[in-house]
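INFO  loader      accepted 1 record
INFO  loader      residues=87
INFO  predictor   begin
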Amino acid sequence: MTAKLFILKTIKEEPCTGYRLKKLSKKYFGKELSTGTIYPILQEFDKKGLIKKTDKGYKILKKGKYQLIIYINNAFDKMQMLEKLVK
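INFO  predictor   done
INFO  writer      dumping tokens
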């Protein structure tokens, strides 16, 4: 799972701060994503209108939900390609 996919997926489930994303990343990746990874992605997503900063953290917007679907489909396609390579 890429950092971008992880961040959008997590924010879709519940509004999150950068700090919370950092802590949750350890659960998914086995190590924490750095703030140097998380905050530039949050800024990019905010600038593109995928997420919005609120009092409770970042919240996914409709455009962000569509982008999440694209990330998931791309990841699925890559997994299928890899499966074919190892068979």
